[in-house]
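Q: I have 274 residues here and want to know how they pack in 3D. Can you give me a structure?
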Amino acid sequence: MYVQTLEGLGLGFGQPQPQKLQQPAIRKKYVSNVVAYKDTKNKCQSTNCSIYVPSALRNPKAIDVLVFFHGLLPICDSAHNFDPDRLIKKFQMDVQVNTDPQLALAVPIVLWNTDDRRFGIIQAAWSAAYLNAFVEEVLDQIGKSYGARPQLGRLILAGHSAAYDILTPLAEQFECGIAETKKGALAKLERVVAMDTTYRPRDAKALEQWARNLATVRFNLVLSKSDPSVAVWQGWEKTRKKTTGQNRPTNLRVFHNLTFGHCDLPANFLITYI
């Protein structure tokens, strides 16, 4: 008498187990219930968002989320129409994200109104607390499409150009030890990619200090061939060395891409340095 094992048999009937069908990619547009505010004209502004999840994910229990903050849209896309789906296609973000099967992309539209920026309204709308809530909302939206809400693996933040108006205040909240920076999605921050975001010495200093404060998080500053942010960063490096004698923190890497212009960066380096 002997016992036959089921190793190598499908479902115990001697047939190979059928291959699981791959989930279709998720392309989902929605209006955020988290990031909403009154602008300087006393008008309620909502935030249109798009989510892209590559088909390779296939209902994982935990996924990584990349939140991308764009710059001034008219500069790089005159026909943007404040459409986050167009933004994803314009900068080939879906094509880039497809190279990382564990990554989901979230792209909110930021209404870079001059007065709203000057009075700190956009900065407040994207504070640490609201950013944490936004990532939870993204996971909820993905869960509605998958039928099961995934948990967050790691958080990646990427910003281009005027996104310094979000990244710099956020970095300063980390420096000040704000409680929301130590919980939720921000507690799982693993990477920051800044593309031509150092337009003021304040931006350069905040980015570097952010890296010093979070030694286990990797920071990448990507600079184009000819943008004012390049000179500001180079000036900051000289100032820092002269006044403190410190070198750049090892978890902050700077890439100066001499062959790419300012508007080329999101289409070429969203994933490259992740």
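Q: Anything worth noting?
A: The CA atoms of residues 143 and 198 lie 36 Å apart. The chain has one domain: 26-269.
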